[in-house]
Design a protein that fits this description.
Elements lengths: L3 E13 L5 E9 L2 E7 L1 H4 L3 E8 L5 H6 L6 E7 L12 E2 L9 E7 L4 E3 L1 H5 L37 E3 L3 E13 L4 E5 L9 E6 L10
Length: 212
């Protein structure tokens, strides 16, 4: 079976645990997903399972042909499977793949902030606020020396496009599973805006938790 599934970020809420403590969690509508294609080494050169999630209103002709046996899906993503031979086109994957206490990795796209300056993008302090400096409050300052090297070094932190990047948050704990509503409650926050697509997979690099 696949090691993960696709979902939609709903938003954050709080959950009262059995001991009375309040836990901040993020609700994710996880699946159900349908296997739309199984890729093998013999045919494709690698092994993977393609999952479809969220019904689409319309598709292009090539996509209609590709999904003619499984239905119309808005999102298609590939992921590995623990046993590729046991997976068939049309199989369904839902939240029962996970259980409370499991650790998962969440992959999403961070919120896009457009063009941002150095103060907002890199948390620069800004220039002096007094002594005649009337226009230096949010300026980046010097970006390099004159003679040597006489150019701006690559990778220098400057103003530019902020956000809208692929982000992976590792080792989030599954607090609760609601199979009837296809919901996962995960401890902590997730990347992306509400209603955005997230990929949920079993944690690859499990960290040892330190008891406080």
């Amino acid at each position: 079976m696949t090691i993960g599934l696709l979902g939609k970020k709903i938003g954050m809420t709080q959950l009262f645990l059995a001991d009375g403590l309040v836990e901040m969690v993020t609700a994710v509508e996880a699946g159900p997903c349908v296997v739309t294609q199984v890729k093998t080494k013999a045919k494709d050169g690698y092994e993977a399972v393609q999952l479809g999630f969220s019904e689409a209103r319309r598709l292009t002709k090539p996509m209609e042909g590709h999904l003619r046996r499984t239905g119309k899906f808005r999102y298609l993503r590939e992921m590995p499977a623990s046993d590729i031979g046991a997976v068939q086109v049309g199989d369904k994957v839902d939240v029962n793949l996970f259980h409370p206490g499991d650790l998962v990795d969440i992959i999403g796209v961070s919120k896009g902030r457009g063009f941002a300056g150095g103060v907002k993008r890199h948390h620069f302090k800004g220039g002096p606020k007094t002594h005649g400096q009337s226009d230096r409050q949010r300026a980046p300052g010097s970006i390099g020396s004159g003679t040597t090297p006489g150019r701006v070094i690559k990778g220098l932190r400057m103003a530019g496009h902020m956000g809208n990047h692929r982000v992976t948050v590792r080792n989030l704990e599954v607090v609760q599973v609601d199979a009837e509503r296809n919901l996962l409650l995960l401890r902590g926050g997730l990347p992306g805006a509400k209603e955005s697509l997230v990929l949920i997979r079993q944690a690859k690099k499990t960290l040892r938790r330190v008891q406080s």
